[in-house]
Structures are given as structure tokens and as C-alpha cells.
Specification:
The protein has 331 residues and is an all-alpha fold. The chain has one domain: ABC transporter involved in vitamin B12 uptake, BtuC. It contains 11 helices and 2 strands; from the N terminus they run αααααβαααβααα. It is globular and about 55 Å long.
Length: 331
């Protein structure tokens, strides 16, 4: 890719982020004007932040894969699997809190690695490999728990991971930001650093832009794809810890469907499904757009089925915009 195309790509990414941010501001203004007494309140704004936490973390996980021109349909169920494995370690085995969380993240990371192996070693298309992993993990989670929730009532400090706050000493109680939100931003910042300032990020973009060129340059594409899917698995595990802490339980039947919300947030945030283009900032903005939209529509008493219709239309428009931008860059 020559310098002119690189500049055009960077310019296009900036435009996508600005468009997403402008859309978020418009949504905030519209709902604030239509329902100021219900929408623009401290409780509701904190609720929006909290509802963005899970989808935001899963969207960050999906961003790595989608930038590399892949897809991961297992992130939602992998989140559930991480919650279940944390429950097994902390409740059944009574491990220390930190060790149990680490165990859960290792388990989801290994699942991501297995998806990567299926894709790289056995040439299974990413859609099929991760769909298979989704079904396997769903079944394993139900088997391990006997289809019953695991409750963390006796695990000291677990609930505070998501619902507690370390900022209550310097903020009013009604505006105290939950720890889960801070963790989401921490994951986003760390992921931004990895994508923009490490060799992993450099090859993630390169593979998504032109995998064959990367392979011909002597770089092991398979190795870096494994790393990408492993990172996605670990981040999905973080989401699992957050949702288990928020519910104070590991719900084995939960998770399916979250992957679609995550992919939607990534696409709305300007990441191209064709690969090679995308940002963590855009993804987080996309996650907030979805949360604000759903929250605002609920406050407006819009039926849930119409919420789904509107979300689907927005996703289609986001993909159409990306397609038009890609065609302009190609020309």
C-alpha cells in the first residue's frame, strides 16, 4: 500500500470516528430533549455506562479479529464460559479470588487459541470455526453446571469487581462510576496500545489489509492469527468476569446473542468487515451508541421488536457506508 493510500485510509478512519461520535452526540441530545426528566439524570447516565460495559469489552475483543479480516461468533458464549470457569474455581474449588480470575482468563484464552488453530492449521473458515466453538462452549458450560447457575455469595469481594467503585471517595454517591466501567476503559486503553504500538497490532492491520503480501514477505501469518484469536479469547474472559460479578452468579444459558451486539458496535464504530481498518476508540463509541439507543428507546416506551428493527437498520447503514468508503479508496 503506497503512501497516498495509507493517508487516505487514515483520513477515512478519522472521518468514521467523527461520524460515529457526532451520531452519539445527536442521540444524547434527542433523547435529552424528548425525555429530559427520565433520560438526562445521574442514575440513568450511570446506567448507560454500566450497560455499555459488557458489550464494550466484547466489542474490543471482536475488533482485533475483524481488523484481521476474520470473525468470531463465539465471544458471547466464551464470556459465559469464562464466568462458569470462574465459578468452578472460586465456588467449587474455593481458590483465592485472584487465582480464580486468572484461571478463567487462561481457559478463555485457550479457547481462542483452539479457534485460531482450527482456522490456521485445518483451514476451517473463521465463521464455521467460531460457530463450532460457540456451540461447544455452550454445551460444555451447561454440562459443567448441570444447567444451573453458580452463585458467588460466599466469594468475598467478587461483586465489587463490577458494581463497586474506587471513586466514591471523590464523587457523590449518585455519580460514582462503577468499577466495571473503569475496567472497560482500562481494557480499551491497553488494547489501543497493543494495536497501535506493538508488533501484534502492526501485523493485525497488515494481515487484514493483504494477508498474501504478509505471507510472501516471510512472516508467519498463522502464528499471528493464533495470537489475535487468543487475545480475543482473553478479553472475552474479562467480560465473563464482569457479567458474573454484576449478576453475582454465572448463568450457563446466558451469552448467545451478545456476539451480534459486539459485532454491531464494532461496525458502527467504523471498523471494516473487510479487514485492515478500525480503531478501539471507534469501537467504544459504537458500543455507547448502541447502549444510548436502546436505553433511549426503552424510555420512550418503544416496543422491543422495533428496537431490534432500528438497530438492524443502523448496522446495515454502517456496513453500506464502509462499502462506499472502500470503493472510493480502491478508485
Amino acid at each position: 500500500m503506497d503512501d497516498l493510500k495509507v493517508k487516505n485510509l487514515l483520513s477515512n478512519q478519522a472521518k468514521q470516528i467523527l461520524l460515529a461520535f457526532f451520531s452519539l452526540i445527536v442521540l444524547l441530545i434527542v433523547f435529552s430533549v424528548l425525555k429530559p426528566e427520565a433520560f438526562f439524570t445521574s442514575d440513568n447516565l450511570i446506567g448507560i455506562l454500566q450497560s455499555t460495559t459488557i458489550i464494550g469489552v466484547l466489542a474490543v475483543a471482536s475488533t482485533f479479529v475483524i481488523i484481521s479480516a476474520g470473525i468470531d461468533l463465539s465471544v458471547g458464549v466464551m464470556m459465559t464460559f469464562g464466568a462458569v470457569m470462574a465459578g468452578v474455581a472460586l465456588v467449587d474449588w474455593q481458590w483465592p479470588l485472584g487465582l480464580g480470575i486468572l484461571f478463567a482468563l487462561v481457559c478463555t484464552g485457550l479457547c481462542g487459541t483452539l479457534s485460531g488453530l482450527a482456522i490456521t492449521k485445518f483451514s476451517v473458515p473463521p465463521f464455521i470455526a467460531t460457530l463450532g466453538m460457540m456451540m461447544v462452549l455452550k454445551g460444555v458450560s451447561l454440562i459443567i453446571t448441570s444447567a444451573k447457575p453458580i452463585y458467588f455469595n460466599d466469594v468475598v469481594g467478587f461483586e465489587n469487581i463490577s458494581l463497586g467503585t474506587v471513586l466514591d471517595c471523590c464523587m457523590e454517591a449518585s455519580m460514582a462510576i462503577p468499577n466495571g466501567v473503569l475496567i472497560m476503559f482500562a481494557v480499551a486503553i491497553l488494547s489501543y496500545f497493543v494495536l497501535n504500538h506493538t508488533i501484534v497490532g502492526r501485523y493485525t492491520y497488515a494481515i487484514g489489509s493483504n494477508e498474501e503480501a504478509v505471507r510472501l514477505s516471510g512472516i508467519s501469518v498463522n502464528k499471528w492469527k493464533l495470537a489475535i484469536y487468543t487475545i480475543s479469547g482473553v478479553i472475552s474472559g474479562v467480560a465473563g468476569i464482569l457479567i458474573a460479578s454484576r449478576l453475582n452468579s454465572a448463568q450457563p444459558a446466558l451469552g448467545q446473542g451478545y456476539e451480534l451486539d459486539a459485532i454491531a458496535a464494532v461496525v458502527i464504530g467504523g471498523t471494516s468487515l473487510s479487514g485492515g481498518q478500525g480503531t478501539i476508540l471507534g469501537t467504544i463509541i459504537g458500543a455507547f451508541i448502541m447502549s444510548v439507543l436502546i436505553n433511549g428507546l426503552r424510555i420512550m416506551s418503544v416496543a422491543s421488536e422495533w428496537q431490534m428493527v432500528l438497530t438492524g437498520v443502523i448496522i446495515i447503514l454502517a456496513v453500506f457506508t464502509d462499502s462506499v468508503s472502500r470503493q472510493k479508496l480502491a478508485n
